[in-house]
Amino acid sequence: MAKKQITYNEAIKEIEEILNIIESEDIDVDVITEKVKRACFLIKFCKDKLHVAEEEIDNLFKEMN
C-alpha cells in the first residue's frame, strides 16, 4: 500500500511536537538524534512546498499581465 503524502500543516504540527520533545530535559540521546533528523527532513519539506507555491503564484500573476 502506498504511503500517504504528508501535508504542510501536518509537517508543521510534527515539527512543533518534536520541538516540545527536544525541549524536555529527560530526552535520551538516541531519541534526540532521530528527532532532529526527522525535523530536518520536515523543515526541508516545508521549504520546498513554500517555494513551489511561490513559483505557482508568481506564474499566475505573470499570466494576468
State the gist of this model.
With 65 residues, this protein is an all-alpha fold.
Characteristic key phrases:
65 residues; 2 helices; single chain; mainly alpha
Overview of this structure, please?
This protein has 65 residues and is mostly helical. It has a domain at 29-65. The protein contains two helices and no strands. It has helices at 8-23, 29-64. Helix 1 runs antiparallel to helix 2. The chain starts with 7 loop residues before the first helix and ends with a helix.
Radius of gyration: 16 Å
**Total number of strands:** 0
Average pLDDT confidence is: 91
Q: What is the rounded distance between the termini?
A: 44 Å
Oligomer class: single chain
What is the string of SSEs from the N terminus onward?
Answer: HH
Structural class: mainly alpha
Overall morphology: elongated
Helix proportion: over 70%
Residue share in β-strands: under 5%
Low-confidence stretches: none
Largest sheet composition: none
**Helix count, per DSSP?**
2
What's the layout of helices and strands?
Layout: H1 8-23, H2 29-64
Helix pairs in contact: 1-2
